[in-house]
Write a structure and sequence with these properties.
single chain; about 110 residues; alpha+beta; four-stranded antiparallel β-sheet; 4 strands; about 35% helix
């Protein structure tokens, strides 16, 4: 069962965006995306909140998340969170292995 984690990083003075830029430029994002079990690692910027960035982080299973959390990269990420004084809100979602209900198909434009 795949697990998606939405992490909202919020700061001041553009620090959330600076955090993302440093995560990318340092190569940390590329390393995370290459980790075994990573399905998605993407940042998004809410249009109505310039001081927040949303990270959608998806993994094949809990074991993959646990391995990621045990990696040396977590120390680097934590240090960057501190550097940019970011605060977090976290949401966690489990995949629906049965797919969309038939009634929902009518609302999906393909």
């Amino acid at each position: 069962m795949a697990i998606a984690v939405n992490l909202y990083y919020t700061g001041i003075d553009g620090n959330a965006g600076k955090f993302v830029q440093e995560m990318i430029s340092s190569g940390t994002v590329a390393k995370i995306r290459a980790e075994k079990g990573n399905l998605r690692y993407e940042y998004f910027f809410p249009m109505d909140d310039p001081e927040t960035v949303l990270l959608i982080d998806a993994w094949e299973n809990q074991a993959a998340i646990d391995a990621h959390h045990a990696s040396p990269m977590m120390g680097q990420i934590a240090a960057l969170r501190e550097k940019y004084d970011l605060h977090m809100k976290v949401e966690r979602y489990l995949s629906d292995t049965e797919g969309l209900p038939a009634g929902d198909e009518q609302f999906i434009r393909k």
